[in-house]
Every structure is written in structure tokens, then in C-alpha cells.
Amino acid sequence: MNVNKLAFFLSVGFVLQSCEPEKSTSVFVVKNDLNVERSFETVELSKEFLADKDLNTIGIKDIETGKLQIVQLVDTNGDSIEDQLLFQPKLGPNSERRFEIVTATKEEQPTAPDYCYSRFIPERTDDYTWENDKVAFRMYGPTAQKMIEDSIPGGTLSSGVDAWLKKVEYPIINKWYEKNSIRAGAYHEDNGEGLDNFHVGSSRGVGGLAIKEDTTYYYSKNFTEWKTITTGPIRTSFYLKHKDWKAGEHQIQESKIISLDLGSNFSKFEISLEGSEHISVGLTLHEKDGVVTGDTNKGWVSYWEPHADSELGSAIIASKNYFIDYETYDTNITDLSNAYANLKAINDKVVYYAGFGWKESGQFKTKEAWEQHLNSVSEKINNPLIVRKE
Asked: Which superkingdom, per the lineage (predicted)?
């Protein structure tokens, strides 16, 4: 893996806006320009913004309350030195809060459970699986692909994104895989925590990538390289790369960094792409008994469907910079019917969010509640929190 490319990806985040960039100060402001309360939105502070201090010895204090914030440190370039600090402030409508960079030992820092977790799963072929307190996902690696190509049972040939339907806050990945290793198929049963009963196959699942040339959609195969970047109380993120592939006559290079933050139903996909100026990101239509809706102006497409004895909403959201439009592709070929968000690449990069809400989890009871949430998430994506030094 190219570490420089990985570092380039991870530099994308909240824009740190400074009225006096040359001024060195330990106080900064986080501002909310929207007329809504905001929480569970992650602010990323670089080591440079924090005056190149040793991140292991600093804390972020809310000046109004005097309380230290929950933080997570991230090594963004793989050199074993933390160079990014994450935290999630809470802000009222049209408000701002002042924070101070202070000295704080590890013992003084407040702690929180590591709900944001991911790892490579060699014991179940070679999945990569990730979760937070709301949702869980997985994608499939090269061994699973080779098993299909060699006609070995148990493989999976897909670059689609699987959804694991959890209804508890605490992590379930290791528990479910352990249960499944003892009895194959055990995680397909709900024992109170949720289950894996979402079919992906060769579909796009929840957020798999495709490229449309003329009337045909082309896909990559399983990922071939992976690297865990971080796990913790606020975020998990990781890198995946796919073997070069063809979309019609175009040679495609595809890699991605996927992150999932505390409190969010949506994974963020930061795609590196060469060979195409556009992509289509899909939601599987399963039995085609649900409803596709969307809003081009707000940048989302959604599929709300009956799911077993419950209901499920899935969606793609992108900022106005990337979102073009959406469409429904309906075919009689198994697993290939998808709702697509059509997105443009900017400087060989595309950023989008893909996720779901399961009615059984108690988060979204109706299609209308789900779509209201999509509007809210879209508004926040297009109007990120503003961070500036005093």
C-alpha cells in the first residue's frame, strides 16, 4: 500500500477556518451555522492545528463547563505517531462553543467504550467487518473470491457492502463470528442482539460501487488489500484496495478509505478512482417490493422495503459537489436490480455516505421518519461545523 496516498486521503475532513492563521493560541471555537442542535459529528484536529504538540499529553476542555472531552488519537500515515485528534462536541442551534487545548495525562482523560470497531476476519474466509453503536457492515476478500472461482463451497464473489442488523449499542462482531465458528449459520438467527439476514450476492448491497458505460453497469471484484487505520470510542476507519478492473474499454483503478463514526448510521466512503469521471453507487432492491425515493437537490437516494418480519431503509447521501442524480435499474437477472446514486469524480476522488436503518432496532419506525433523517444528515454534510482559532 502506498502510505503517501493513504495520508492524502486522511487529510480530507473538516476545514479548519482561522481568522488569524498566524496566531498561536490554545483556545479555539466550534461553530454551528444551522438552526438545529448538533451532536455525534466528529471534529478532526491536525497536529499542526494543535501546535505540533505530543497528542498523548493534551486534552480538549470545554471552557464553559470546564470538562475534558472524550477524544481519540489517530495515526493517519502509518508511522506509529498520532497526528490527528478527534472529538464530538455538542452544539445548540446557531451557536458556538469555545474549547481550550490543555495538558492532560492519560489518567486524567475521560474514557468511553470503544464502540467503533473493525477488523479483518481470517477465521471466516477473509471478510473485513466494521461497526459502531448503531450499525454494522462487511465486505469480502480475495480468498472468498477464489473459492467461488474454484467452485469451493462457502465463498463469495462480490464488491457489494453487506449490512449486519444489530439492535444493541455494544460491539457484536467478535461475538457473532465466534458463535458462527462453533455452529455454522448461527449469526443468521436473532437471539436478542440482531442478525445477519441481509442478502448481498452480486448486488451492490448498501453502497457498493459501479461504473455505467452505455446501458451496462460494471463492477470490481473482492478487495485484495486491507489496512486497519483506527478503532476507538469515536471512529473506526480502514483502507481497502481492489485489483484493477475494466468498465467497457476503460481500465479502472479503485481504492478506498471507509470510516464509521459514533452515533452515525452511515459509513463514509472516500474513493480513489482512475479511469472514470463518474461512478454509480447502489442499493440492492432485493425482492423489488419496496419503494425507491430520492432528492437530487439534497443529494440522496433511498430504498425502503419489507425485510423478513420488519422493514429496512437503506440510502446513499453525497454532498452537492458530487451528487448528479439517481435512477432505478430493474432487471430480471438475480441480484442486479439496484437503485443508483450517480456521482462525479473531482480530481480522481469521490466521497459519499452509505447506510441503513432497521425498524426492529427502534431507530426509525416509518419510511417518513427515515427520509426525515436523510434530509437532516444531508443538511449537515453540506454545512459542516466550522472550527477556528481565537
From this structure: Bacteria
Question: Domain check: are 172 and 94 in the same one?
Answer: no
Cβ pair 141, 128 in contact under 8 A:
yes
Q: Domain check: are 158 and 216 in the same one?
A: yes
Report the C-alpha gap between 257 and 271 in whole angstroms.
7
pLDDT of the residue at 25: 67
What distance in Å separates the CA atoms of residue 353 and residue 9, rounded to the nearest whole number? Answer: 15
Q: Is the dihedral of CA 133, 135, 136, 137 positive or negative?
A: negative
Number of Cβ within a 10 Å radius of residue 186:
16
Tell me the pTM. 0.93
Same domain as 67, residue 172: no
Residue 138's Cβ-side half-sphere holds a number of Cα atoms within 13 Å equal to: 28
Q: Which domain holds residue 225?
A: 117-382
